[in-house]
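Fold description:
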Amino acid sequence: MSPRLYVNLDHVATLRQVRGATYPDVLEAALLAERSGHVDGITLHLREDRRHVQDADVERVLRGVALPFNYEMSTAEDIVQHALRMKPPQATLVPERRQELTTEGGLDLVAQAARLREVTQRLHDVGTKVSFFIAPEAQAVERSLELGADCVELHTGPWAHAHHALETAKERARLEAAAASAQATGLVLNAGHGLTTSNVGPVARLPKLVDLNIGHSIVARAVMVGLTEALREMRAAITMAAMETAPPHRGNA
């Protein structure tokens, strides 16, 4: 079975914010993605500095689109309060630094343990499932379970940015070991960051992978071919990868 594709539309908002315009509209993009039939959910990351997605984008998409919604968020109190009001079906807790271009690593599950446990419980109290964005390490998976997470999203950035055979093999092994750990603990397994149609295959083949969160490469490709076609291409790459791991069909003797 093919993993589900959640499209992250943050960078539709980036195009709007860079000029202070009213377009392109994130809700319009989400509705187009929904109508395409190529995605299973929408992801938005409301950052503390509001550099791209705005509060109203989250509210309009959550209320205006029928697809499942994944709210990427830090544990900053104003963001937590917004999430508690919105009550999204799923929230993915991610680390955040003002000076970073994009999320650079997994959560610090030791230094932030108390805060992560507290925010997770508060989100659970309003009916929101919680995922932790983590480094692809078995220890991080086990720690996420201890802190109350329902899911883990493996940070695939190091895999995506590996350039040499040895580095690629190392990162693939890390992903596979973390996936095995998630399966052993019973946590739902998701993955994302830096994925393109060229590198998504081995990630999509991880056993028991449920969701892939992919944004930048899809939005960038959409500039060239349109959002519907960009989504179709990504869906095709994921489906082809999943078919490569499917057992061969055996007809009746």
